[in-house]
Design a protein that fits this description.
Elements lengths: L2 E9 L2 E7 L5 E4 L6 H9 L24 E7 L2 E7 L6 E4 L2 E2 L5 H4 L1 E5 L11 H15 L3 H20 L5 H32 L8 E6 L10 H10 L1 H7 L10 E6 L4 E2 L5 H17 L6 E5 L8 H13 L3 E6 L13 E8 L2 E7 L1
Parallel strand pairs: 3-13, 3-14, 8-12, 12-13
Antiparallel strand pairs: 1-2, 1-4, 4-5, 5-6, 6-7, 9-10, 10-11, 14-15
Length: 357
């Protein structure tokens, strides 16, 4: 199943864009601020959540928070429409039927890499946890429902903690829900890491050993009874803190590579980038039986010519529909005739695009 077309209305810098697509990689180039990333962000909205920028719907409207936007896509035989009316959260329809956002994850797997992720191994655990959960969601669409169930129960428990409620029965009920969904979340994460490690191919992009780190509070525990018992034992401390301090929501992702098991956080900037690309490529490779949309924003500028050529060879070999962005056409020379090219410009706050040979 291929993304055949994309139509934008009032999204970011695009008053309107109609883009025809096929299975060939599409290289989008233009000056900084011209609207390249906005196209990739629109495509990332074909996944559940807030897209590659993590932005609220009101922030994505070209004419400001009092306006709306719309994205329409032809995905195989399916018509996908997602939009945000002024002051409202975004809606999703598939084949003219309103559906929850989680249904998007069952239609297409969207994987992305953006420049902010270059700091993945040195930033706070929250960013690595989000990355891990996006990988897991791409492999297991039910992961989104489990995360929603866990977060809902935890919010209710946190409310009780802040109000210093003493009724143990209420806590037990919520902790049972957290334990059930939390254990499944952790098992999904562990299975996803094993799948990604098996799909790595080394070479110019080194294979990594990946680990679900416990974080604070045994966040790698996949046993529901153990999670429930820990939550019960932690109640006095959690009441003092006003929030839940133990559980899968505190998990972290660890990575090491090479014969010396070099931790990713201690590797050079170039090695960290190559390692991240290795995981992204492995994620796409592991989804060979699913439709995959791979979005690589400004990826070429951080690689030397040889590694760019190696990356493009791998992209061509992937069972994925790939879109890349960069500042100039020369960054994509190593593709040769294997990729289409789209030139993007911006005038008076309005982006425009034209395909070039």
């Amino acid at each position: 199943m291929t993304l055949n077309s994309l139509r934008l209305s009032q999204f970011r810098s695009w008053p309107r864009l109609e883009l025809g697509l096929d299975k060939q990689p599409l290289a989008i180039f233009g000056p900084n601020g011209s609207g390249k990333t906005n196209i990739l962000e629109a495509m990332s909205m074909l996944a559940p959540g807030r897209g590659l920028r993590g932005a609220a719907a009101a922030e994505q409207a070209r004419q400001g928070p009092d306006a709306g936007w719309r994205i329409r896509a032809a995905l195989g035989d399916h018509a996908v429409d997602t939009a945000a009316a002024p002051g409202e959260t975004r809606s999703v329809t598939i084949d003219d039927k309103t559906v929850p956002q989680t249904q998007l994850g069952r239609l297409v797997r969207v994987i992305w890499l953006v420049p902010a992720m270059d700091r993945l191994w040195s930033d706070a655990p929250e960013g690595r946890r989000r990355f891990l959960d996006r990988v897991t969601l791409s492999l297991m669409p039910d992961h989104a429902d489990l995360a929603l169930a866990y977060e809902k129960a935890m919010r209710e428990r946190n409310r009780l903690l802040r109000d210093q409620v003493q009724d143990a029965g209420w806590y037990r009920a919520l902790e049972g829900q957290m334990a059930e969904s939390g254990s499944a979340l952790t098992r999904n994460r562990q299975d996803a890491l094993a799948t990604i490690m098996a799909a790595q191919d080394g070479g110019d992009f080194p294979a990594a050993q990946l680990t679900l780190l416990p974080g604070e509070g045994a966040a790698d525990d996949a046993d529901a009874d153990s999670i429930a018992a820990r939550l019960a034992a932690m109640r006095p401390r959690d009441v003092a803190a006003g929030r839940t301090l133990s559980g899968p929501h505190r998990a972290d992702l660890g990575a090491s590579w090479g014969p010396q098991d070099m931790p990713a956080a201690l590797s050079s900037t170039g090695e960290q980038k190559a390692l991240l690309l290795s995981l992204i490529l492995a994620n796409a490779r592991a989804l060979s039986d699913q439709p995959v949309l791979l979005l690589l924003d400004e990826v070429a500028a951080h690689l030397d010519a040889d590694r760019r050529a190696a990356l493009y060879d791998r992209i061509i070999a992937l069972p994925a529909q790939s879109l890349l962005s960069g500042t100039g056409p020369e960054l994509f020379d190593a593709f040769g005739p294997r990729a289409r090219r789209l030139s993007v410009t911006k005038t008076d706050g309005r982006s425009a695009a034209v395909e070039v040979a």
